[in-house]
From TrEMBL:
<feature type="domain" description="Dienelactone hydrolase">
    <location>
        <begin position="31"/>
        <end position="276"/>
    </location>
</feature>
<dbReference type="InterPro" id="IPR002925">
    <property type="entry name" value="Dienelactn_hydro"/>
</dbReference>
<keyword id="KW-0378">Hydrolase</keyword>
<dbReference type="GO" id="GO:0016787">
    <property type="term" value="F:hydrolase activity"/>
</dbReference>
<dbReference type="Pfam" id="PF01738">
    <property type="entry name" value="DLH"/>
</dbReference>
<dbReference type="InterPro" id="IPR029058">
    <property type="entry name" value="AB_hydrolase_fold"/>
</dbReference>
<protein>
    <submittedName>
        <fullName>Dienelactone hydrolase</fullName>
    </submittedName>
</protein>
Length: 283
């Protein structure tokens, strides 16, 4: 069983949040990086945010990193696309929110699909795994070297969700993370990307995600349940009702249901990392 789950126009949907990020920008391992720090300035529990195709300057991901910092984590958002993320205006121009998308004519949908293909195809080739994974691995190594860093986790969204899963494979001490959280990952291969998982992983998935349907979610559940029973690998899979691809980062804040799903996904990640990045107390 080997299922490749790709990327589609829904990777480009969603809303841009209001608010002003409060972190700062530094260069870490040669990458420009947004850093959100807790009041304690402790790096003991650090989280690396692996972005979607809209990149590290997208306001939503920076505001989310700020929220994690308020919970005691140091959050890093590296520019793993090296300045080549897709423009944020694609959120509305290329793929409108779900209610609008469903009301589009067949002609409008065909035009949108063609534009998405022309945009995403070349971008995905340029940022394929052979190029992107070494960049991400290098950044993980650099964060693990930062003084005071004890435990490191990764959180990924859409394109970055798969790399969060891949980061949970490594047993190399210089690369090994302590926990991962993947929100609506795209481009995943089932079972190839899941069988090698050796670290605790949490998943936030939407039941209206066109990239991970009921069948694929069932396959992932079966794999992770087997890994828990045979290898003791901890995991959790939370499926959010009526949520589309991208909901945890790009949901509609004006919708009470979508806002609650985003809040719950944030809480899911924070609780997961508080459990798995906790540092042992002396004595």
């Amino acid at each position: 069983m080997s299922t490749g789950v790709g990327m589609s126009s829904c990777c480009l949907s969603g809303k841009v949040q209001d608010g002003k990020p409060t972190g700062n920008v530094r260069t870490i391992g040669g990458l420009e990086t947004y850093v959100a720090e807790p009041e304690s300035n402790s790096t003991a529990q650090s989280i690396i945010f692996l972005v979607d195709i809209f990149g590290w300057t997208f306001p939503n991901v920076r505001l989310l990193a700020d929220s994690y910092a308020k919970e005691g984590f140091t959050a890093y958002i590296p520019d793993v696309h090296n300045g080549d993320s897709l423009p944020i205006d694609f959120l509305q121009d290329v793929e409108p929110p779900l209610p609008e998308r469903e009301s589009l004519s067949l002609t409008a949908k065909a035009a949108s699909t063609a534009k998405v293909g022309a945009t995403l195809g070349p971008w995905l080739v340029k940022h394929r795994e052979a190029v992107s994974k070494p960049i991400i691995d290098g950044f993980i190594r650099e964060v693990k070297k930062i003084p005071g860093t004890d435990k490191v986790g990764t959180i990924g969204f859409c394109w970055g969700g798969r790399y969060s899963i891949l980061s949970a494979h490594s047993l190399d001490p210089s690369l090994a993370i302590d926990a991962a959280y993947a929100c609506h990952p795209s481009l995943v291969a089932i079972p190839a990307d899941f069988d090698p998982i050796s670290r605790p992983v949490s998943f936030a998935l939407g039941d209206k995600d066109s990239l991970l349907g009921e069948k694929e979610i069932g396959q992932i559940k079966d794999i992770m349940e087997k890994k828990k029973s045979e290898d003791g690998v901890q995991s959790e899979i939370v499926v959010y009702e009526d949520q589309v691809h991208g909901f945890a980062l790009r949901g509609d804040w004006s919708s009470e249901k979508d806002k609650k799903a985003m809040d719950d996904a944030q809480k899911q990640g924070i609780e997961w990392f508080k459990k798995h990045l906790a540092t042992p107390k002396a004595g």
